[in-house]
Prior knowledge:
Layout: E1 2-16, E2 20-27, E3 31-37, H1 43-46, E4 54-61, E5 68-76, H2 78-81, H3 86-97
Parallel strand pairs: 3-5
Antiparallel strand pairs: 1-2, 1-4, 2-3, 4-5
Amino acid sequence: MAEWRDEAIILSTRPLGETKAVVTVLTRTLGRQSGLVKSARSAAMRGTLLPGNLVQASWHARLSDQLGMLKCESLDAYAARVLDDPARLTALSAACAL
């Protein structure tokens, strides 16, 4: 079983079905990674999975080349800090889009 745990910045979230989402993160040691997050559209996770937020990401899968399950715990909400400043919000969005 393949697994890793690292600090990461949320880059994007794509809905999948009614409750799940495919989340792409940028980790410190592994670079860009993707995973499936269950209950991603719940009220508790909605604020955590905003692009630009810092999270503690835990990923596991049966094989290392599969799309594994990703769990994210919020560490810092960078996106919430820059909502009132359009220039900083644009810069954060552009950085996540790259």
